[in-house]
Fold this sequence. Notes:
The complex is a heterodimer of chains A (182) and B (547).
Chain A: H1 2-10, H2 16-23, H3 29-57, H4 69-88, H5 100-121, H6 124-139, H7 143-164, H8 175-181
Chain B: H1 2-12, H2 15-33, H3 39-46, H4 55-80, H5 89-100, H6 104-137, H7 142-159, H8 164-179, E1 181-182, E2 189-190, H9 204-223, E3 232-234, H10 241-263, H11 270-283, H12 296-311, H13 313-319, H14 325-336, H15 345-348, H16 350-371, H17 375-380, H18 386-405, H19 409-426, H20 431-455, H21 466-489, H22 493-499, H23 506-516, H24 518-527, E4 533-535
Antiparallel strand pairs in B: 1-2, 3-4
Helix pairs in contact in B: 1-16, 2-4, 2-16, 3-4, 3-9, 3-14, 4-5, 4-6, 4-12, 4-14, 4-16, 5-6, 5-12, 6-10, 6-12, 6-13, 6-16, 7-8, 7-20, 7-21, 8-20, 9-18, 9-19, 9-20, 10-11, 10-12, 11-12, 14-20, 18-19, 23-24
Amino acid sequence: MTDVVRTERNSGTVTEHSASDLVHPLEGIRGRGIARWGAVAVLAAVGVGAIILSIGFGLGTGARPGPGLWPFLAAVLMLGATVVVAITDTLEEYEPWGNESVRTLIALASLVVFAVLFTLLGFTVPAILLMVLWLRMFGQMRWLHAGLLAVGGAIALFMLFDVVLGVPMPRDLLMTPLTSWM
Amino acid sequence: MLDGLITGFGVALDPINLLYVFVGVVIGTVIGVLPGLGPTATIALLLPLTYVLDPATAIIMLAGIYYGSMYGGTITSVLLRMPGEAASVVTTFDGYQMAKQGRAGPALGIAAIGSFIGGIVSVIGLAIFAPMLADAALAFGPVAMVALMVLGLLLVTSLGMGSTWKALVMATVGLLLATVGQDQISGMPRFTFGSASLLDGFDFVAIAMGLFGVGEILHNLEQGGHLNKIAKKVTKIMPTRDDARQSAMPIVRGSLLGFFIGILPGGGGVLSSLASYALEKRVAKHPERFGKGAIEGVAGPETANNASSTSAFVPLLVLGIPSNVVLALIFGALLIQGITPGPSLIPDHPEIFWGVVASMVIGNTMLLILNMPMVGFFVQLLRVPMGILVTFAMAIVLIGTFSIANDPFDIWLVLGFGILGWIMKRTGFDPGPLVLAFVLGPILEASVRQSLLISGGEFTVFVSDPIAITIYSLLAVGIAFATIRRLTKGRPSVIEQARNIPPATGLIAVVRGRRDAKTRTTTDASADAVADTEVGEEERAEGAPKR
């Protein structure tokens, strides 16, 4: 690996990202370790669970393969590969959790709120709220700009799907009265 | 073949299809330019839109996005050393150096010309070989199909850029996910946990949109920040006579190399451009020029990646085996339309095959025009802040998800898979093999069970067919060779180099780098303001991430 770094460096094409990543020792070893073992544990649990359930579905015989045979084979293979990953995998690819994850969690929460509101209010109003939040938070836009863009965007998307593509959208707090009035 | 081409152009020149191939290549170029959204995420996002289209039109548009992104990815690689999508990473090596020397124009020009030639060569190959191969493949029984799919899955897992074992884990997870729902033969519900919505299994579009769309968006959010404002005017696109002479052979070699690598499972895109770069460097009289602005280092790989993205349609349309993730999504789009790609696709649906082939000729021509005189326009797209981009992408995901089946449950499903995709990105598990295995899973299971039934339960049936024996022998030799090579020499340098390539979401690399080396990049940028690259507005670091 060092060899490649050197050649890339000579040719001046290495990105700042990989340079800093490779020169400094890995940050957040502990976080990465937790992420790694967490991933392995979840995968192993899924594998074992799938094996047990597959046996329950009935493996059948070679001549009359049962519905459980195929998932059983897949799950055994999965467990085997997971064990190899547990033994051989390095920590490089596991990103430690940090402050930036908080923003992602807020984004996730807003998506959940959207999904709940969607069934109650239709697409546009929850979409406008979501887009204003995201444009403020991730686009650092001013309230006015974010608001205008969100309203325009949400209505345009609604029109595209509802009118142009003919998707039967659920009753919409904003658009249903508007389109019926038109 | 002539009849086929006439049919094909009849389909492709239909005004609706012309419109959609244009839409496809423009979207492809746009997302190729914009870092953060690659062709995979975009096609996943747009899958619901294809419901209302004819099968041929849908595939024409999606294919346009794929090869369009191969063109677009070049622009940012050359101008900003920031690959818009993975296959253009190699172009940063010499393309950016050319830009620094004031030769951004010729670099982009030769890339567009090379891509065009590579694309056309590959389309011709597709038109000649695919029908011939399909005739041969019609004779394939379930045993041979099992062997082919095993080959495809193993190659995709081992040729990926991450860990092979992790890719294999993901492939098996994909196989398992595909078994959720009613068993095709016995009708028994599997892994449904009593849920009626799961009886039909997971919806492919929901998985693709979740893992690639939402997963990618969430991961992008985490990287934060948005692009620096740039307004470079690129002039003198036409390569000089010297440039053309130097690039001629690399383009020829790139076309052929790209075509053949693209046919291999796992071969499209990155691998072909890497292989072409390695080849050009090896045959060059002055290999030391590479990495310092050698035009061959742009012409060859750019030609190869476009050639391979076209020939990657061969295994899909001939065997029904997608050779990479983008094609797995296109496979899914065909399934949605009620068409199972396979050897019978060309005889049964000539309008799809030949329509797509003809549209590729038209699409590549459009791209040549879009990328030569209009390159400046696409560069301006980089002014769109990342925050706006992800917000709109998310809104499209949400409304698109609902339109899959007009069922709000799908929104929850997509969010669930989105969280999974985000976690997978953070832990280095590639969702690609999962989606590929999910698509192939039901066919593989059916073929395995059919083979067993035919043979009366003899597991030796899987090595009873000459085609299967050939495939497994090749696979065994390949694995043995790779293992010995790895033990004695370590990984091949090309693969090692590829592993150090920043992820397809090139923004991550740049934004992080800018934060660390803010001042350096800024001075660097102003020093780079050279002859034919007028800097209209100075690159400013004000767009650097605020945390």
